[in-house]
Every structure is written in structure tokens, then in C-alpha cells.
Amino acid sequence: MQGRTYKPLEGLHQHNFNHLSRTQGTSRERRRYLAFAHIQDGKSFTEAASMIKVTLKALMNWVDRYRKNGIEGLKDQPRRGPEPLLPDMELDAFREAVLELQAGRSGGRIKGRDVLKLMEDKFGIYPSRSTVYDTLKRADLVWITGRSQHPKTNVADQDAFKKTFPKKSVK
Description:
- With 171 residues, this protein is mostly helical.
- Among the domains are: 12-74; 88-138.
- It is 51% helix and 0% strand.
- It has 8 helices and no strands.
């Protein structure tokens, strides 16, 4: 065996990493669980790293996280980037406000600028238009519809027109 020896991992046999690698978490988490399943089966750190195609350094970082925090250390940590302007706990209120705004319309759909004004007035945030659409997507309010109907549309008159409209002859 090459390289220095590492002290064995404590509490490794308390978890079924093989099962976790097939059922739990994101793909990155499942990959970590698979590495630990190989270690649990008696493979060295180097062998486990090469089996799942990561560097030994990456595997050792996971081992350090496991030693410090246990199984929770293998789960994904918060990633880089700004926090959303509208927190997740306010998404339900935002969703209801947008649906209420749409219900109050006599015709047509609400637009991005309408939702932007709603976010400014009701939630006190001043986002860009792209943030408005991202927030709508996070709240599962992205819809694609056909052309909306005018409030004074008479469907019966449209059907009668379609029936009496002369057909074009094909040459």
C-alpha cells in the first residue's frame, strides 16, 4: 500500500451507504455516498476515489467533512450566489397575491410590469424584470396560454361567422 495511512473512520458502519447512494439526495450527494460505500466495503481511499472518478483530494475533503459533521457533512452545502429577494417563506403569500391580481382582471393576462408593481407595493422589494419572472417561476406561476379573449367576446357570433364564411377554392 502506497502513501501514508489514515486513521479509520468512526461510525462508518452505522449507515448503509450503498442504499443511500441509490435513493437519497442529489446526484452529487449520491456520488459521495457511493464513495463511502466503497470505503465501507474495505477499499482504500485511493481505490474508492478512482472507482467513482474523483481526485483523492476531493475524497479526502469529503472524509474530513464526514469526520467533523457525520452523515450531515456529506449533504450539499449552500452554494454561492445571492439570496433571492423574496424569501421562500413568502412565496405562498406572493403566489396568492398574483392569483388575486389576475382574478381582478376583466380581460387579458397580467404582465411583468404588473407583478413588478405588486412586489414593490405589497412586499417592499424593487427587483429587475428578470427577477420578477424568476420569482414567478419559483412560485410555480409560469403559464403559457393562447391568445386571451376580449371581455365582450360573443362566441356564438364567432361560430355563426365561421359557418357562413365562404370557402376559398384551391386551384
